């Protein structure tokens, strides 16, 4: 799964499909995996939190507005939410990625474009902003900028996540980029702990088995994906999926 993580919590517009996992996952059960999805209503924060702080000499104070998804809080804390934005451009780039005839340069560009669109959807309502006034060529205007003091941490998973997060800086004005190495088959004798206080995942393609495991380990996680495929094969590849995204992105 080509994925990257973006730190901070999010919410999405009402026309975006969102699913919550409602049935437990039992690895020892040989029967086909069956999941119940619940279509959730949109939730919003009617009263965004406001914080005042000292600003430039021209103005004594400006206001920082941190939009937080406080509505439906119990659901977001207890269940992982999966968002599938119904944008035609997202469907287009997923289709380009699926085609086995897509050459490596076009595949990587399609992955970057898909990542840009998913990041746009994921960051729609929670980016902290600064409100003030500026001088235009004609008059004074009220303005609102993304607050650069609270950069978004973008964490692509090596290697495929590099292409997915390639255009992060073009959609998010203030970002810090970290890299996460991942080995497909961890030794069973070792345990690994991931500590991220508040985050969501962006993925080109997702499948129920992986989503179920994420739901069990990270309740409250929010996942944005281009499409949800039905299953994975015995090697862990999503079916029908798009193949090895890392190999196809870098031509290896």
Automatic annotation (TrEMBL):
Domain spans labelled Phosphoribosyltransferase: 84-188, 202-252
EC number, as in UniProt: 2.4.2.9
Superkingdom in the source lineage: Eukaryota
Gene3D superfamilies documented for this protein: 3.40.50.2020
Family annotation (InterPro entries): PRTase-like (IPR029057), PRTase_dom (IPR000836), UPRTase/APRTase (IPR050054)
Signal peptide (residue range): none
Pathway entry: Pyrimidine metabolism; UMP biosynthesis via salvage pathway; UMP from uracil: step 1/1
Protein keywords: Allosteric enzyme, Glycosyltransferase, GTP-binding, Nucleotide-binding, Transferase
Cofactor(s) this protein requires: Mg(2+)
Pfam families per record: UPRTase (PF14681)
GO MF, one example: uracil phosphoribosyltransferase activity
Family: Belongs to the UPRTase family.
Protein name per the record: uracil phosphoribosyltransferase
Lineage: Eukaryota, Viridiplantae, Streptophyta, Embryophyta, Tracheophyta
């Amino acid at each position: 799964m080509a994925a990257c993580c973006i730190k901070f919590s999010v919410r999405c517009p009402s026309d975006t499909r969102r699913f919550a996992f409602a049935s437990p996952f039992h690895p020892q059960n040989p029967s086909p995996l069956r999941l119940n999805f619940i279509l959730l209503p949109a939730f919003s924060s009617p009263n965004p939190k406001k914080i005042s702080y000292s600003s430039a000499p021209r103005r004594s104070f400006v206001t920082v507005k941190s939009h937080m998804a406080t509505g439906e809080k119990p659901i977001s804390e207890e269940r992982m939410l999966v968002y599938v934005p119904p944008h035609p451009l997202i469907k287009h780039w997923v289709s380009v990625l699926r085609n086995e005839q897509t050459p490596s340069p076009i595949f990587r560009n399609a992955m970057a474009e898909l990542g840009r669109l998913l990041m746009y959807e994921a960051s729609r309502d929670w980016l902290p902003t600064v409100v003030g006034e500026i001088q235009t060529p004609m008059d004074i205007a009220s303005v609102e900028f993304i607050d650069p003091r609270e950069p978004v941490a973008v964490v692509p998973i090596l290697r495929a996540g590099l292409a997915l997060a390639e255009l992060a800086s073009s959609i998010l004005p203030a970002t810090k980029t970290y890299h996460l190495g991942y080995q497909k088959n961890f030794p069973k004798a070792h345990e690994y702990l991931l500590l991220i206080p508040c985050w969501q995942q962006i993925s080109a393609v997702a499948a129920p088995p992986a989503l179920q495991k994420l739901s069990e380990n990270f309740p409250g996680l929010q996942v944005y994906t281009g499409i949800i495929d039905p299953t994975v094969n015995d090697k862990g590849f999503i079916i029908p999926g798009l193949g090895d995204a890392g190999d196809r992105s870098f031509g290896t």
